[in-house]
Specification:
The chain is mostly beta strands and 585 residues long. The protein has three domains: 2-379, 6 Propeller (Neuraminidase), CATH 2.120.10; 387-489, Immunoglobulin-like (Sandwich); 516-584, Immunoglobulin-like (Sandwich). The chain is built from two helices and 41 strands. Strand 12 (165-171) and strand 13 form a beta hairpin. The N and C termini lie far apart (59 Å).
Amino acid sequence: MKMRILHLAIGAALCARLGFANPYPEVGLHPGYRIMSLRPAGFEPSVTGLDFLPNGDMLVLTWRGSSGPSTKDPVTGMDKTGTRTGTPRLYRVTNTKGADTSAIRFTEAATGFKDAQGLCVVNGDVYVGDIDRIVKLVDKDGDGKYEDKVEIGKIPSYDGWFEYSFGPVYKDGKLYMALAGNVQMSGWPTKQFGKDRSSVISIPIGGGTYSVVAEGLRAPDGIAIGPDGEIFATDNQGGWRPASPFLHIKQGRFYGYFTDPVGPIQTAANSKVTPPAIWAPYRDANDSPTEPALMLTGPYKGQFIYGDVGRGGIYRAFLEKVGGEYQGSVITFSGGLECGIHRIRTGANGEIYVGGIGNGGDSNQGWNGKTFGLQKLVPTGVPVFEILATRSRAKGMELEFTLPVGAAAENTAHFTVKQWKNTPEEAYGAGKGTNETLPVKSIRLSPDRKSVFLEIDGLKTGDVVGIQVDSVKSQDNKPLWYAKTWYTLNNISTSQAFEAPVEIKLPAVSASGLLRVERLADRLRVRLPDAAEYKVELLDFQGRSVGGDVSNTGSAEIRTRSIQPGLHILRAQGAGRTLTLPVVL
């Protein structure tokens, strides 16, 4: 116990010297965006929830305000939630999607929440996730204000320190919430006041009791729907967390934050830990990651962006499936914002809407002492040279860039690769292994010079691979926007980089006039020549099927959200014939 107290004292002193009011992020505003304030005079929201109504109006949820000193439970002596002075409110903000900021207006739309940390709009209905329940808001008279609340379901809550409830998000008739567990005010693990915290739960959207989906989360200040409708959550470093994990949430999985009492899923899993899809290294990449949002269009389509309330800025997460599981990389995306980013949404034209929050002072629940913010990043169309994606490949790693690389990218000396293993321990932030530098043996470029394959010996499964790029510019002499990326190598891919295209022999019968393709936001709708049974597939340049459907209705649909852009072949087989059509995604 004495050693733990000493550790805490040293940690507190170190944090004071570092000063949570830090200079991060390491970059300014992303050069491919311009920024707009969405805050009319007098509007200073500390944002805990952000979403849009069908008519385009923005809903902004705020919290109770900065926390005072913790109280002590009289029986256990454990830390409990401190005094809060503010009143949580929901605001309706109009005209945020336009270019004229002078037209933006805000009005109070609801109040009466305990300390809600999220909301979502489903078919025009508004659902708010509070600490102890989910409610549906009711506008009785259609005046844009919500006079009533219908309780959808209870959430287990015991007023433990930092015991927030994050979400909801909607999927397949259910609302999902990510629940933080009770911790000491220092951030160290402690006994829980009750059951089913540190988990992801679901509640039927029509109302009912909650079900536990997964366990082993610490402080998951962000939950979102990702590629293929899967659920993802960020979590914060601390006890059992040497870094901040980005988690793919699946039923029955345990994600490594050990609790007392032990939950039923941890028990059933025999404490087997599902590793995160991404480890975001503490201080190198993230301090306190928050809500992710999926990019819907543009060069980052299919990738996540998310904020960091302690470090400031926006970060980007690339995911790929290797061995049937998601894994991927994180990279710094943008700074230049007014507050630590807490909530985030993306628009159909590439816009990024961000809401900020903070406790002020030196608290690690905020950035540079800022406590509120609401802004929009609008893409300018200016090409930016940056690392777009990092991929695992047989015998090495592949970096994909947004623009063709210059000659310096052919030199191994311009790439530094390190790897280390995270072995979580109970002590706050402990478990990061020693860096091991791996030499780059050789380099190979893709024909379009947008991808660079690094041949590397000694890569280990389960390690984090950090890659730094030095002195590499684009072919047209643009500097690299951000030079570092971190990839979590849970599995090493067996695929080779830049496999040569194979010849796809097209049948004599073309699809001209017989197949029609309608491009929707996340899928292709294929009109077939008749209602016979057809097997419809989308083939990549290797002739491999990357998506498909079987239909006897005259119409088929293929999901494209997780398919890489480029030239593909649409093939429909049925009624004794094969029809093909080139398609560019």
